[in-house]
Amino acid sequence: MGAQAKLGAFRLPPLPTIGEIIKLFGLRAQKQLSQNFLLDLRLTDKIVRKTGNLKNAHVYEVGPGPGGITRSILNAEVANLLVVEKDTRFIPGLQMLSDAAPGKLRIVHGDVLTFKLEKAFPEHLQRKWEDDPPSIYIIGNLPFSVSTPLIIRWLENISKRDGPFIYGRTQMTLTFQKEVAERLTASTGSKQRSRLSIMAQHLCKVQHSFTIPGRAFVPKPEVDVGVVHFTPLVQPLINQPFKLVEKVVQSTFQFRRKYCHHGIGILFPQADRSKNTEKMLMLADVDPTLRPTQLSILHFKNLCDVYRKMCDEDPNLFTYNFREELRQNKIKKCVKDTGGDNDLDYI
User: Fold this and answer.
1) 117-148 residue pLDDT tens
2) Long-range contacts from 141-144, C-beta under 8 angstroms, 24+ separation
3) How many angstroms separate the CA atoms of 91 and 68, rounded?
4) Which of 83, 142, 219, 274 would suit a FRET pair with 254, their CA atoms being 20 to 30 Å apart?
5) Is the Cβ–Cβ distance between 169 and 235 less than 8 Å?
6) Closest CA to 45 of 194, 200, 212
7) Any known ligand binding at 141?
8) Rounded to whole angstroms, how far apart are CA atoms 146 and 160?
9) What is the pLDDT of residues 165-219, one digit of tens each?
10) Is the model's pTM score more than 0.70?
11) Handedness of CA 121, 123, 129, 130 (dihedral sign)
């Protein structure tokens, strides 16, 4: 019985501190990769606690770096931890952790933006989307340069239920610049309300768990860092294809300080813009004088539903690109001003 209890309560053996690992392997954060190391294990432990109960869970850590959060995850008695690290300088320090936790840590040298997670975990861990989330978690102290494109990609995966979410409603706990964390969780009417707010909140329950002061990182970034927890919803609040929702939301926030009809208008070609904008707003029951930040998820649901119907009626509408029309108009003006069309060969 004592032996079983001992096996169940895994703890890493004494190891060099993260600071000593950095010195031992001559590691320096690279500014071009937006790297910042979190050395305080009390904070890495807190990130792991906010993730949930990881005992016997399977975890995917994004960009472990020198291994601070990695240690806290292993000490949470996980069944298995997969880390994907792009920077080869960190591999020896991670290998030291792997040696200290036999059979628990898998290290992959790769890029999180291209790494395929579909076959990373056993099939028996899969859950139906309507069931409770699987015992799989994603955790990451993300480089600032990667965080936004990565979360947008994962949100699209959630909408398609593929990638990391082929196993079910996989939960994520990730770090972002504080301003980005505030945008992800911003409520209707907040000055931080943005495209990210709608894209995240219509697919997930999003919680800003806590803020880490910039001084806790090495080197110290110019901003504080927000830890954000995502739990995919059983049913999205906007039940339309991701790319359609993204187009409507992105267009609406194009002119965030103006009335929302300005941004919604650029969904339509100039010739029928005024008529179609008025039609879309009327059918969606959206006040054209609201600012984009004042629009609720329900407003965006109605806008997306109406836009989908309009696209079904006009198959060319979805491929319409406002910026491309602007470019073509400039070309035509240039040709007209020069009195001929020979300049087209040079544009």
Assistant:
1) 888 999 999 999 999 999 999 999 988 888 99
2) 141/36, 141/38, 141/47, 141/62, 141/63, 141/65, 141/68, 141/69, 141/175, 142/62, 142/63, 142/174, 142/175, 142/176, 143/33, 143/34, 143/35, 143/36, 143/63, 144/34, 144/176, 144/177, 144/221
3) 13
4) 142
5) no
6) 212
7) yes
8) 21
9) 999 999 999 999 999 999 999 999 999 999 999 999 999 999 999 999 999 987 7
10) yes
11) negative
Domain ranges of the chain: 18-232, 242-334
Tell whether residue 287 is among the known ligand binding residues. no
Contact 183, 197 (CB under 8 A): yes
What topology does CATH give the domain 242-334?
Answer: Helicase, Ruva Protein; domain 3 (1.10.8)
How does DSSP classify residue 134? P
Tens-place pLDDT, residues 17-54:
766 777 766 666 565 555 677 889 999 999 999 999 99
Annotation-wise, does 63 bind a ligand? yes
Tell whether domain 18-232 is in CATH 3.40.50.150.
Answer: yes
Among residues 80, 71, 85, the alpha carbon closest in space to that of 113 is found at: 85
The single residue listed with the structure tokens 């930040």 is 293
> Any known ligand binding at 345?
no
Residues 236, 238, 240, 242: is their CA dihedral positive or negative?
negative
Q: Is 157 annotated as contributing to ligand binding?
A: no
36 annotated to a ligand binding site: yes
